[in-house]
Specification:
- Two copies of one chain form a homodimer.
- In chain A, α1 crosses α3.
- The longest helix of chain A has 17 residues.
- In chain A, the strands form two sheets. Chain A has a six-stranded parallel β-sheet, sandwiched between helices. A six-stranded mixed β-sheet of chain A has the order 7-6-8-9-10-12, sandwiched between helices.
- The first copy, chain A, is α/β, with parallel strands linked by helices.
- Chain A has 13 helices and twelve strands.
- At the A-B interface, α4, α5, β2, α6 and α10 of A face α4, α5, β2, α6 and α10 of B.
- Chain A binds a DNA duplex through α2 and α4.
DNA sequence: TCGGGTTGTGCACACGTGTGAATAATGCAA
DNA sequence: TTGCATTATTCACACGTGTGCACAACCCGA
């Protein structure tokens, strides 16, 4: 396999197959000019020595590394963690390698992106990055393709893949109205992110269409404790149904409601992200699934396409979410 | 900054500074043979052009990439996600770049590690990897330093950093005995992982020392739903105190216990990992903190040391965990 | 002017690969 | 055998960097 810790180079393979180094390269690349006989001989030699090409050298020559930079903010958010895992898996299938950086401050993102550029990444994927502008500028300056996943406000000339938050809001409104709810609350997050606002708008518009409206609207940070506090204020106003911008918010609300209402008198609750929590028996939470599977697939494919053809114009894609109905919105007598 | 999409090379800097390329390289590297005058001239030119060295080329020349492979299994486990985030952050501080792969099957791990080797990583970090053997063999074959984090059974000649599960079990036993518990349960995980067993042993031995023992011992997979089922069986046997191998198990147990006991009659519960869940008000769970901060720091430092000096013998390190006391073990009348 | 030390730079090679152009080998018709 | 076309292989360079060694420049004392 290896000789005293040094990796085998294509030269050794050539030597063993009694042939020149270039022929080895072409044989492994499947160049049709190489005869079938020599090709099999080369393959045998390569297998015998356990030859694996040095991708660093190849990258230098090809001006393309196969490495994609991934910038992420907070892996403690299970939604981000799950998205990252899917991204990595998809990339593996497509022979791309993810160089991951955490940029949870503006300077952090700045530094991360600079290091990525130094490593000559073929493209950059930014996952729900609050520090878009630094990233966008750096990528434009280095003329590297950039794909924003799940955070895009339409103002910048880069590729982006996102979920249709508006449509999700509409679907939730329909669902809750069908359940017979009359008094609606929206529990938003993170001082009115674009995304949280879109969800609220879809919800609100559709409720109006049904002759209702949002009676209670509050927001808190996307963390359990502040949400738990805010939840009490919402509940004090006795809503029939609460649409939460996030599963964490929803779960905090249910925990806050349980001692007050018991299980029977609890309002309908709908979350967002369909995270693992939502499926837990005590919550059994109806939640909007963003279809991360599809979203990550598209993101990776776009990144790959742009990497191989950098002159392409930016692509924008919207993935349709779907509602996963569970116990928290089962029909009951309100 | 850039010229028509091509990165600036050191040649351009040399040209602008009216000087040879080698001098540029030396000036930027801080070679003392370069006069102060030319150095400042070079720095100015580099800054003006926004020069960033091409790390791929440098890697090829230096036979060292600064890239460390990280193999992880399941980012949906918040504990792993958190660990990965910390690893990435520490690596950033030390000018290392993480190439992350998910290996959640034996072949997956195999393929992941091969790709890492092709990218000439300086070292590999495996995070709680169940497929150790594939990884270990690949690293030995490629003679790349490997650091196992948080999973090591003492049988392999590689570096490893882990938590002192045994000591944790002891500390938990002391704590629960001090609270006056008499009837103890151990809620294990994942068909008796090494780690789960060590925790149980420490717990058991120390209980014996206090004149008690483990009265109930059960296990389930590390996921909420199976744990929720198993929890009922444990509770049916009326323990005073339950030590769970994992916060997820602990939380499932508390959820199962709440309808049966109410909050007052609930047994003492101790979890493991001190994850975000543990701090949620409804759980308020006493939990063992593995000191991931320290563990990841040490892991990264060891990886770096081994990368720069590959002949070093493997290092093994044990990090002391500590108990975070919360409401689930507050003194009460049993 | 010369010799010898010190200091600052430049030349040229190496890292391992891919690839265009040149060359050798082969086949076939004349 | 020679000429030409086709095929299989090799030569040599490029990618962008770091660095050993040679070399130029300079100062200073003789």
């Amino acid at each position: 396999m290896e000789r005293d810790g040094k990796r085998v180079r294509s030269f050794e393979v050539a030597e063993l197959a009694q042939i020149s180094r270039s022929t080895v390269s072409r044989a492994l690349a499947g160049d049709p000019r190489i005869s079938e006989a020599t090709r099999t001989r080369v393959l045998a030699a390569a297998a015998e020595l356990g030859y694996q090409p040095n991708l660093i050298a190849r990258s230098l020559k090809n001006q393309s590394t196969g490495i994609v930079g991934v910038v992420v903010t907070d892996l403690n958010n299970p939604y981000h963690a799950h998205a990252l895992q899917l991204l990595i898996e998809k990339m593996g299938t497509r022979r791309m390698a993810p160089l991951v950086f955490v940029g949870n401050t503006a300077e952090g993102a700045e530094r991360a992106i600079e290091r990525l550029m130094s490593y000559q990444v073929d493209a950059v994927i930014a996952l729900a990055a609050p520090f878009r502008h630094q990233i966008i500028n750096a990528c434009l300056a280095g003329s590297k393709p950039l794909v924003l996943m799940n955070r895009y406000d339409g103002s910048e000339p880069v590729s982006a893949v996102g979920g249709d938050s508006f449509a999700a809001g509409v679907a939730v409104a329909d669902h809750l109205v069908a359940r017979g709810a009359k008094r609606f609350a929206f529990f938003g997050g993170e001082d009115n992110t674009t995304i949280s606002r879109e969800r609220e708008q879809g919800f609100s518009l559709r409720l109006k269409h049904h002759g209702h409206g949002i009676d209670i609207a509050m927001a808190s940070r996307y963390a359990y404790e502040p949400a738990f506090e805010t939840a009490h204020e919402i509940l004090r106003q006795k809503p029939d149904a609460v649409f939460c911008a996030n599963d964490t918010l929803a779960v905090a609300l249910m925990d806050a409601a349980r001692p007050m209402h018991g299980t029977s008198g609890m309002p309908f609750v709908v979350g967002y992200d369909n995270s693992a929590l939502a499926a837990w028996p005590i919550y059994n939470l109806t939640s909007v699934d963003q279809n991360l599977e599809e979203m990550t697939t598209q993101t990776v494919d776009i990144a790959r396409a742009l990497a191989s053809e950098p002159s392409r114009p930016p692509v924008r894609l919207t993935i349709e979410p779907f509602l996963v109905e569970r116990g928290s919105t089962l029909p009951r007598n309100l």
